[in-house]
Amino acid sequence: MDSAVLFSGGKDSTLALYKALENGDNVRYLLSMKSKNSSSYMFHVPNIDLTDLIAEAVNIPLIKGETNGIKEEELQDLKKEFEFLKLNGIKRIYTGALYSNYQKSRIEKIADELNMDVISPFWHVNEEEYMKMIVDLGFDVIICGVYAYGLDKSFLGRHIDYNLIEDIKNISKKVPVNLAFEGGEAETFVLDGPIFNKRIKIIKAEVDWHFDNGTYIISDAVLENKK
């Protein structure tokens, strides 16, 4: 099946890509939506420009859509990109949705209007098992945004590993934090994985912290050969 992945460079859309390839789909495109609104309801924002590097690393063409990020209006921008995909033979869209009905239902509505299928392979997955699977599969994922009580500046730039998962579990015993960050608690970016032909090396990055939330901004990165 000719497919595309709605792609942000974060863990969930990258795992959706992994699953699409595992399913034997012919993934012809990645679609990234760049929002001018840092508080977009629909789209991942931190380090979205670096999806170019991931696209090159996995050797799949990247389509870049743009939106002002105005609530609900941004869906029309997404629909335009879906229309382009359909014209180019794409019949199926993969998403990294885990629990967000807001995003999933709107994506599916657009796809239904265009007679396209939507697959969210990890919908309602067990969060802890999912996070451990990411580590076990060999994906190298960093946290590039934190937006929830209990997650402080020290989490920015950290790699997802078993120690981090345990830290999040301990925090979740005190405050409501989704272990897979599906409540918007954090954003991530993937540097490497089993579907990458090259890995991403960060050359320069900085932390932008504002009292109780912040981002890890990667200003320079390159692809390097795997050892």
Structure overview:
This protein is α/β, with parallel strands linked by helices. Helices cover 30% and strands 30% of the residues. The protein contains 6 helices and 9 strands. The protein has helices at 11-22, 51-58, 74-87, 101-113, 127-137, 162-172; strands at 2-6, 26-35, 62-67, 92-94, 117-119, 140-146, 186-192, 198-210, 213-225. The strands form 2 sheets. It has a 5-stranded parallel beta sheet, with helices on both faces. The chain is globular. The model has no long low-confidence stretch (mean pLDDT 92).
Notable traits:
single chain; 227 residues; alpha/beta; five-stranded parallel beta sheet; four-stranded antiparallel beta sheet; 9 strands; 30% helix
Give a concise summary.
30% of the residues lie in helices and 30% in strands. The chain is an alpha/beta fold and 227 residues long.
Radius of gyration: 17 Å
Number of helices: 6
Shape label: globular
Q: Which class do the helix and strand fractions yield?
A: alpha/beta
| Strand tally | 9
Whole-Å distance between the termini? Answer: 33 Å
What topology, given as strand order, has the largest sheet?
3-2-1-4-5
Helix content: 25-40%
Average of per-residue pLDDT values? 92
Percent of residues in beta strands: 25-35%
Biggest sheet descriptor:
5 strands, parallel
Write the layout of secondary structure elements.
Elements: E1 2-6, H1 11-22, E2 26-35, H2 51-58, E3 62-67, H3 74-87, E4 92-94, H4 101-113, E5 117-119, H5 127-137, E6 140-146, H6 162-172, E7 186-192, E8 198-210, E9 213-225
Parallel strand pairs: 1-2, 1-4, 2-3, 4-5
Antiparallel strand pairs: 6-7, 6-9, 8-9
